[in-house]
Amino acid sequence: MVSVMRSCIQSILKLVNCLIGMVGIAMVLYSIWLIRVWEREMGGFPFFEDDDDFTPWFIYTFLGLGVALSVITCFGHIAAETANGYCLYLYMLFIFLLLMLEAGVTADVVLNRDWEEDFPKDPSGSFDQFKGFVRSNFELCKWIGLSIVFVQGLSFLVAMILKAIGPHPSYDSDDDYASDRAPLLKDVVHPPPYAVGNPVMGSRNNAWSIRITEKMNQASR
C-alpha cells in the first residue's frame, strides 16, 4: 500500500514539475526571440554591450528566470525519481526561494505606486511591450500567474509529502525470505569437522599390545 502511494505521489510530482518546466522553456524561447529582434535592429548580440545604460536587462532577466526554472525542473525530476531526502530538501528550498521572489515582486507592484521607477530603463523596449500586453490582457495574465504560483506551491507540498513517506527500500530484510530459506535447510546434512594431525590408530595399537603381552607370558612359562 505504501509503495503504491509513493508511486502515485512521484507521478504527481513529475507532472507538476513538467508544468514548471514548460513555463521555463516558454520564457527561454521568448528570450531567444527578443535576442533575435535585438540582433536584427541593433546589428549585434545584447551580451556584448559595455555601456550600462544601454544594457537590455529585461532580456537578461527573462532568460535567467527561464534557465533557472528549467534547471529546477531537471533537479525536481531527479528528486521525484529517486525520492532521496537531500534532493527533495534542495528542491523544496529552490521552490521556496522562487515563491519568495515572486511574492516580493508582487508586493512591490501592488503596494508601491511608483514601482516602475524601481526598474532601470530598458533600451530594447521589451519591458514596455510586456507591460502593455499585461495591461491589455490583465485577466488572462492574472489567471496565468495564479496558476503558475499554484503549481509551484503544489510541487512544494507534494515534495514534502514524498519526503515524509521516504524513499524506496534499497534492500529487503532477512525476515521476508526466512520462510523461503527454512525448508531448504531442513534436509541439509553438514559434513563432520576435519581434524588435522596424526591419524588415530587406537584399535591396532590395542591388538598389538595384547599380542606382545601373550608372547611375553608364553616365554615366561
UniProtKB/TrEMBL annotation:
Keyword terms of this UniProt record: Membrane, Transmembrane, Transmembrane helix
Membrane-crossing residue ranges in chain numbering: 12-37, 57-76, 88-111, 143-162
Localization in the cell: Membrane
Lipid bilayer topology: Multi-pass membrane protein
Key word Hydrolase present: no
Entry keyword Cell cycle: no
GO CC terms in record: membrane
Predominant place of localization: membrane
Domain of life: Eukaryota
InterPro entries: Tetraspanin/Peripherin
Protein name: Tetraspanin family protein
Native organism: Populus trichocarpa (Western balsam poplar)
Highest classification ranks of the organism: Eukaryota, Viridiplantae, Streptophyta, Embryophyta, Tracheophyta
